[in-house]
Design brief:
By secondary structure, the chain is α/β, with parallel strands linked by helices. The protein is built from 16 helices and 23 strands.
Length: about 525
Amino acid sequence: MATVSSFLQLHPADSVVLARITATSGTQWTPAPPADVVVARERIDMGHKMAIRPIAPGETIYKFGQPMGFATQAIQAGDWVHSHNVDMTELTRDYEFCSSVIELPRPKEIRTFQGYRRTDGRAATRNYVAIVSTVNCSATSSKYIVDAFDKEVLKEFPNVDGVIALTHKGGCSFEYGGPDHIQLTRTLAGYARHPNIGAYIILGLGCETGQASFLADNHNLIQLGNAVETSHRPLILNIQEVGGVAKTVQRGIAALKELLPDANRVQRVPIPVSELILGTNCGGSDGYSGVSANPALGVASDLLVSQGGTSILAEIPEIYGGEHLLTRRAVRREVGEKLVERIRWWEDYAAKFGATIDNNPSVGNKAGGLTTIFEKSLGAIAKAGAAPLTAVYEYGEQVTEKGFVIMDTPGNDPASVTGIVAGGAHVVVFTTGRGSCYGSKPAPTIKVTTNTVTFDRMRDDMDLNAGTILDGEKTVEEVGKEIFECIVSVASGEKTKSEAQGIGDHEFFPWTPGPVF
């Protein structure tokens, strides 16, 4: 095998190169075609950047061929480039609309997966029974009910993946019918009607602002069932009406015992991949995220979209500074304008708290080599592949458009994925460089690591290793195809690493941005 260089240049216009491995002072980088050799003047950690030419104070620094920050001091060729000598100032973006819309190649083969066909015609990849808790006050009761259905009990129902309690910390102390109430209700309803939920009950306290009846009535929630003409309004239990926690737990256990036999009456059947909705997310990102795992996920996303499926890009604060590259892909001007409107909302939201969106790169992100939100965003949008942008959705809104879409979620991983799944995602692919342990229910999460070091250290948690791209063993396209095949396999019932460890019961985290009164 050919020797792999210690550094990687991502674009001919770049001011920096990326360290594939930790490079000591004196490590050389030779451009291609050969020109003057650049020698590292100091240690450059794995995933971090080295300047390849002199950069003057105030000068724009380029990575991926795009601006990622501005020099705060003179930088010499061979210097480490990071937070100590780079800052983010206001960046002017040219918002073109619909100027880079391409048609993806048609697939050579129409693919299917082995999924569940619900009685309303929708496809599912998992089959859970759930308790939808309207307020934190009913969270403990929900957990007590779930605890009655351990693995031994569920052996009688082999087609049920589990019983889950969708509990959270909110549900009250906001304006009735206000934005936070509507958003929380939309999220809870998205889970209740999710195709991966085969049956559910709604559990509340009784006096909360987020009333169970408001949830059921405003979203026309029904219990589908697997027999002919079994659809009906879901059971609602309010602790205050039932007579306290103990009586509510007993009623809840009895109700789920009645639901389980019907929920178990499902079998996997071939379903076109075109019916899949994929959620994409990244967390614990590093300097390699935009080079290996995210571009490979972009390939997988395009493969799914070319099959007629849907792929969701989320985390609006983490595409900040790169959104102009996405407005060009909008199929209609109003789609691109909605994305810009959401960016402006986040700028205003951050300003209300005296913050800026550049606070987003976390301590771990920066330790992994990411310096500014512009740099992080340029790598994050690689998850979106090259497909046209067909729609932009609010948090937890039901995704109905086919193709590549964007959902407005925060960068916080559990909150982001909760919104994506509420929107209907059947499967989530989560890229990570530092090593996230995230998992979700009822939609399984596939984790793809950006580098081999993290993959080897966390093999029990990582499903796929995109570090083989950096190692020179595979191309981005090859790893992208691996991710696509993994999506199909997981949609067909193959367990992810997080599912094998039972992760996902505590990651439900509905996001509400407003004040608590």
